[in-house]
Structures are given as structure tokens and as C-alpha cells.
Amino acid sequence: MYxxxxxxxxxxxxxxxxNLIKNGELVIFPTxxxxxxxxxxxxxxxxxxxYAAKGRPSDNPMIVHLADKRKIEDIAQNITEVEQxxxxxxxxxxxxxxLEKKDVIPDIVTAGQNTVAIRIPxxxxxxxxxxxxxxxxxxxxxxxxxxxxxTNIQDIRKExxxxxxxxxxxxxxxxxxxxxVVKVVNEIPVILRPxxxxxxxxxxxxxxxxxxxxxxxxxxxxxxxxxxxxxxxHYSPNTKCKLIxxxxxxxxxxxxxxxxxxxxxxxxxxxxNEHEExxxxxxxxxxxxxxxxxxxxxxxxxxxxxxQADKIEPEIxxxxxxxxxxxxLAIMNRLxxxxxxxxxxx
Length: 346
Ligand code: TXA
Ligand code: MG
What we know:
Layout: E1 2-4, H1 11-22, E2 27-29, E3 36-40, H2 44-54, E4 63-65, H3 72-75, E5 76-77, H4 81-90, E6 95-101, H5 107-110, E7 115-119, H6 124-133, E8 137-138, H7 153-160, E9 166-169, E10 180-185, E11 188-193, H8 199-206, E12 210-211, E13 241-245, H9 249-262, E14 267-272, H10 276-279, E15 286-290, H11 295-312, E16 316-320, H12 328-338, E17 343-345
Helix pairs in contact: 1-6
Bound molecules: threonylcarbamoyladenylate and magnesium ion.
């Protein structure tokens, strides 16, 4: 079933959706980061259905979503002072914390690890669903495994319709990139996946932060890593992609033009509003993601732009990169995987 709650949550429909979750069915719902494909985290069968619907590798654990900080101790234990500070400062929000798990969380959720990833979304619809379902909700991003995360219902319906019991439409997601994933090791917060909560913000609260070495490293399929989700080909359309980032704007335009010509204009460029007319491509072959300095706007639009570009079936998708600062770090982390590390950085 499809429910549109973009204007307002319908309470009768909310009951239906929450009963589906309680009864072990899958529901797609919005959060402030990206859409999630959710199931009762305490129900092994239900969680198994998520892996099947997404075609997700079974060694990739899921984030468990709660509506309230007081519920954290139902599923996690031995929370340290640093972890508590992170909870107090960044939850609810686009922030996921890896904690030691309690036995109630089945192994299938955590892919056998003794830790569980916990997030409290800052989105009214998500919180309503989790509250009234009355159970923790396991939810990876709503997309087929390896594809860009779903940030609007049109994209998601094409990919996942028929594989879930209900789809809740809450409009385009506010942030557009997945949450920052953090694990505290020896009292130091380690960022396993960058997101809207930046290293600078974490450093301000704890006085220390490390970005895991794997964030910008190419990982092979047998690698053992803290955050297994980071090792797969990810965020990728079917078309080959190339990432282009030059500090100097004239260089940037030079390289864009060079590749547009090299591929005899059979390209789609995902780029900044200011650069559209410099390339004089047909309108559908230049997808604007926002003004070049508006990283928040770019984050919001990047995943749907990748899907839109793919539909045109060019020989290559050329993507403009940006500074690894603020949310730019998270955008570049995703785009490097999108391009399978085919990039130019000058
Ligand atoms: O914003 C988000 O985080 C979205 C929304 C729906 O909440 N969810 C999301 O889930 O992006 P997913 O499954 O696409 O990404 C979860 C990431 C993966 O990289 C996974 O490997 C990592 O979190 N992860 C989950 N549990 C973990 C654990 N116990 N230890 C280390 N990494 C973990
Ligand atoms: Mg995902």
C-alpha cells in the first residue's frame, strides 16, 4: 500500500503501518537523511526479508532505529562516558552510534557482531512509526544494494515496489545523505562513515575525533573492516561514472570540456548551476545539483541526480567534485564509491 503523509500523518493509516511492522512485514518510511526500509529488529524472519528485498550481502549489519533515548539501554550495554556525551549531543539526528549490544538483538541484525548500530531519527513520520510500532526498527537505506540511497518516493517505487507491504511518502528527504556512523575506540570517536554531523562538530563536543582510514580507501571484497557497508561497490548507477575535482575553477571547466569532447558529447554532467552554460550541452545532459558553494543543497540532490543521469544512458556520467569540508566530506566519500575510484583531483 502507498500512503502519502507529506502534509500530515494520517493516524488511521499510522495504525495500519505500525501493525504491519509488528507483524513482521516491511515498510518503507522517510527519515531526515534518506528513506529506510524497515522491519521489527527483534524478529529474525522480518529482518531476513530486508536482506532479500535489497539483495544485501548478509555480512552487512543494519542500523536499529529508536524513537527515544531512554530506549537505548533496552538494546545496548556498558555505555561509556564518551558514548553518553555523543548520545546527549547528537541524538536525535543524522548520527549513528555503534554500541555493545544486548542479547535481545538477533545476530542477523548485526551480522554476528557483538555491537549494534543505533540511530534516533529527527523526523516526525519516522518517530511516529517507531513509537507506535513499539519495537526497535531495523532499517537500511531504501534502495537495491549497491544503488544510490532513495531520497524520494518516485525513485524508490521504481526500485522496490512489490517487495514491501507499505510505502510511506514524506516528500523529498531533508539532508539527502545517510547518517554519520561513529564507533568509540579507546575513548576516541572514530568516524566509520561521514555524514551531516561533521568531524568538526564531534571534535567540539569530545575534544577528539578520528576519521577511519577506510573512508577514502578502496576496499577489496575480502577486506575485514569495521563498517562492512563501506567495502561494496556502492551508490552506483549502471552507467560508468568519473569524478572531476580541481581547486581552480578554470582547470575544472577545462577538464569537464576535455572529457565532454573525448566522449563525443555522449555524456551527462552532474554539476553546479554556474557551470551549465559553460558546456553548452543539451538541457537534459547537464543536471544541476545546486550552486557550487551550497554543499547542503548538493547533498540533497546528488542521489536523485545519479538516477536521472542513468536514465539517459550516456557513455559516461561526469560528476563535479568538491572540497572535503563540512558535509563535502560525506559527499566525496559517496562519490568516490559511485565512480569506483575513477577520479581526477588537482
Ligand atoms: O541515515 C541512515 O543511516 C539511513 C537511514 C535509513 O537511517 N540508514 C542507512 O543504513 O544508511 P545502511 O544500512 O544503508 O547503512 C548502515 C551502515 C553500513 O555501512 C553498515 O556497515 C554500518 O552502518 N553498520 C551497521 N551496523 C554496524 C556495526 N555493528 N558495526 C559497524 N558498522 C555497522
Ligand atoms: Mg545503504
